[in-house]
Each structure stands twice: as structure tokens, then as C-alpha cells.
Amino acid sequence: MYDLIIRRARTVDGQLLDIATEEGLIAALGTLPERAEASHSLDLAGKVLLSAGWIDSHTHCYPDSPVYRDEPDRVGVAGGVTTVIDAGSTGADDVDAFVAQACRCQTRVHALLNLSRIGLLRQNELADRHDLDLPLAEAALARHPDFLVGLKARMSASVVGENGLWPLAQAKVLQARHPGLPLMVHVGNTPPDLDEIVDRLGEGDILTHCYNGKPNRILNPGGEVRAAVTAALHRGLLLDVGHGSASFSFEVAEAALAQGMAPHIISSDIYCKNREQGPVFALAHVMSKFLLLGLSLEQVIQAVTETPAHALRLTDRGRLSVGLAADFTLFELHDEPHLFIDCEQSPRSGHLLIRPLAAIVAGQLTLTDHGITHHAFHS
Fold it and tell me: What are the residue boundaries of the Amidohydrolase-related domain, all occurrences included (predicted)?
């Protein structure tokens, strides 16, 4: 007797698959015998796509943040996302409060610890050197080793003030004390210059807002990917979309993709305002933009499942394999004309929308607004 059996799910490579779960883990995969029983069952009849649970690696979902906030379940399971990573909303001062709230969510919630102890209490959190307290950060990492899956440093002029590259140097010191700990670096307006930033990045680091349209972009004035970025990629740097309200340009993405510079990770940088008013709306909407840009469905799903799971050391999820967490996203491809808008208010016409139908976390199902019919799920 299993807890849940999902029958005739369609994977992104077109295969039909049965899945059984037990105690929150994947217990069996393949074609299950008809006699197999479960407390609950779901027959998708080959009409619904299923992948490992989606991971949004760049969100802002600490509900008490005074700057960027949202509810983890609103940007998580309600949109088909089974794991959300808050990217630096909290620092050492307030991460304990976030942990207490996250424990009550159905979505799996983790965070990147802001290098500044105050987190996003204000927009220039790295401008005062007194707020960069490495012992406090060390203590927070020690208290919450499972919740805190990496570090976050926002390296743009409005954030660092007169401190230039010093906060990044401090982040690398802290990272060196925790081998393998990922560091996500935000890029925006100069100073510091992008070349100076990426010269210091490599294996285990994630460059977010990789297709931003600001002057400090990954393209040089001639429209070619900067040599410093290419060199950092060879050292193991990962590119993260981090769409957000002001950090994604179709023009930049098209030029980079034409030069073979596809994103490793697709993330939303979502919070309540850009979820409700756009241009983000949901992780699925950002994913759909990359179908429009020419990525295959397999590439898009890889960028929200296995790659971010590996990058953030979430070893229990991101793949469909016996013994891993029973986290799945059920979705469909909806074909209708649609106008996509980037952060520069530049439009592109497309017709394929990735539409999440349900999120399953540890075997527990939550339907989205587009959810599968209730009669398909029965005891």
C-alpha cells in the first residue's frame, strides 16, 4: 500500500510514467501493476506533463521584509513551484524570524543569507561597513545549516555606496570558510564594473540578472559577450536569469543566446508587486519566455529542476529517482497567441505558455488556479 500513485504522467521527453510515493519519498517509477494500491491515486491519462518539482532559485518571499516581500506559498505551490529560495531578503539579524515562518509553509523554503546583517531593511544594505559582520553571519549559518543554502551579495552602486568591491571580497572570505557554499551575486549599475565582479567569481558562484539591459550588462559595446564573463564561465560560474522588475532584456538575451550563452538557471526574482503587476507574474511565465527565445522544453525544465538543485546542494530533489523527495510539478503547454513584455517594455509575440496545474510536495498535492480536475484525484 503506497501513499500516492500517479498513473500515466507524461514526461518532457514524451514518455508515459507511473510514480508511487511513500512517506514523502519516491518509492517506485515505471509502469506499476494494476493491482498496486495507494491511499490516494491520480490518473493523468497521458494528458498532463510531469517533472521533478520546480525550484525558483531567486525569489523575495520573506513576508516581513519592508522592501521586497511576498508569501512563500503564493510564489511557491500556488504557481506550481515546490521549492523557493529567498535571495537575500534576510541577514543575520532577522533570519531566525524567517525560519519560524517558513516552517509553517507547504512550499519548501530556503534562503541565501544576505551578507549584510540587516538584510533588505533598506536598499543600500552594503553601504555601511558596520553592517557586514562576518561572525554574526557565521553564527547564522551554523544555526540554520539546512535553511541557509548559500550567500547573497548585491553588487551595484546603489547598494554598496562607496565600498566598491570590498563587500564581495568579504563574501569570498566567508565562502572560503564554508567550502562548496554557493554565492549568488547581483549585478546592476556601476560601480563596480561587471568585469571587476566576474574576475572574482568561479566555481560555486551564481551571477544573477545575467540578461539585464543596463549599461553594466554581459555584452560589450559591440554586442559580444564580455571576455571576462566567458573566462568566468570556464571557471565554473553559473548564469541565473533573475528576471525581476528591471533585470531582463529580450535584446540582451537574444544576443547572448545567439552566441551560445544560455542560462544555467531560470528564476523569477518575484515579489508581490511584479507578481501582481508584471512583468514577472510567475516562474512559469518567465519559463515561457525562454521557449519563445528558442530553448527546448527539456532545457527549460532542466533549468528549474536538476541544475538549481545541484548548484544549491539540494541533493534530495531536482530529479525523478527512487529515494528522492516526492516533489513534482504537473503542467501543460497551452497554445494561444500571447504578448510577452520584458523589463524595458519591449514586446515579443509568442504562442506557447507553460501552465502549472498542481504542485506535489512530499507527496501532498496542491492545485493551482489552472488545476487539474478534482475527479482525477481520488482515495
Answer: 77-339
Helix axes 134-143, 166-176, angle to 10 degrees: 40
- Buried (b) or exposed (e) across 248-283, using 16+ Cβ within 10 A? bbbbbbebbbeeebbbbbbbbbbbbebbeeebbbbb
Give the closest residue to 18 by CA, choosing from 3, 4, 29: 29
Looking up cell 501543460 gives 332
Q: Is the pLDDT of residue 374 over 50?
A: no
* Residues sharing a CB contact under 8 Å with residue 230, sequence separation 6 or more, in sequence order: none
User: Does the structure show a pLDDT above 60 at 377?
Assistant: no
- Please count the other Cβ atoms lying within 10 Å of the Cβ belonging to residue 230: 16
Q: What is the largest CA-CA distance in the chain?
A: 68
Residue 370: its pLDDT value, please?
83
Q: What is d(CA 209, CA 187) in angstroms, rounded to the nearest whole number?
A: 6
255 pLDDT more than 50: yes
Per-residue cell: 214:
543596463
Q: Sign (positive/negative) of CA torsion 133, 134, 139, 141?
A: positive
Could you count the other beta carbons within 10 Å of the beta carbon of residue 297? 18
Looking at residue 265, the DSSP 8-state letter turns out to be: B
Query: What pLDDT digit, counting tens, does each position of 129-172 carry?
Result: 999 999 999 999 999 999 999 999 999 999 999 999 999 999 99
Could you tell me if 49 and 10 are in contact, meaning their C-beta atoms sit under 8 angstroms apart? Answer: yes
- H or E element at residue 350: strand 347-361
Residues 6+ positions from 302 with CB-CB distance below 8 Å: none
What is residue 98's three-state secondary structure? Answer: helix
Return the number of other C-beta atoms located less than 10 Å from residue 229's C-beta: 25
DSSP result, 189-247: SSSSPHHHHHTT--TTEEEESTT--SSSSSB-TTSSBPHHHHHHHHTT-EEB---TTTS
Q: Say if residues 223 and 189 touch (Cβ distance below 8 Å).
A: no
Supply the angle between the helices 134-143 and 95-102 in degrees, to the nearest 10. Answer: 20
What's the average model confidence in pLDDT over 49-53? 98
